[in-house]
Amino acid sequence: MAQKPPDVTPEIAPGDLTEKQLQHYLQQKEVAVDTETMGLNPLRDRLCVVQLCDRGRRAVLVQIPPIPGRTAPLPSAVGAPRLKRLLEDPGILKILHFARFDVAAIRHHLGIAMAPVFCTRTASKLVRTYTDRHGLKDVALELVDTEMDKTSQSTDWSRSDLSPAQLKYATADVTLLHPIMDKLAMMLAREGRSELAAECFRTIPLMSELDLMGYDHLFEH
Length: 221
Prior knowledge:
Layout: E1 11-14, H1 19-26, E2 30-37, E3 47-53, E4 59-63, H2 81-87, E5 93-96, H3 99-110, E6 117-119, H4 120-127, H5 136-144, H6 164-190, H7 194-213
Parallel strand pairs: 1-4, 2-5, 5-6
Antiparallel strand pairs: 2-3, 3-4
């Protein structure tokens, strides 16, 4: 029987990381990252929450409030400078699921060029070729035997007082990304596709930028 996600109580950071939280995460080799937005169009839908978690399961939810008088895209260093320092640090690997969307949303709404990244969805599609089910719920169930509850996914993430269900949902995603990455990295190495995956990950920030510029199916005939 599948287990539930780890029961982790996140720290809430209004607007940006605290200096203490930043210094903690700067000491990590990898940090799991996820976002919650008002929809799936980063040019239209506001970024509301950025979730972070380290391998020791210290989780922080950064709530991104609307900035009066300012609209996206924000210039660099406006919005969340400590979060920017962390996510742009070249020595820290950022682990995401469907990184293309999260990288685009964070770049557009906070002026942050996040890199380097490991995308568990991309890795799954490269190595789990025996299935077409690459959503985080399916990947988590197979690789780490964890059943995820997605009922809070489509809710109002702009509210300042997130519900217990929202906090639990937002935290569950990032607490599972480290073990999922570990399993996928082993599978990629076993199948001789680690370097191919690394090349794919390096293209994600460019693909995200093209998405924000409105290019669709650029490489198709």
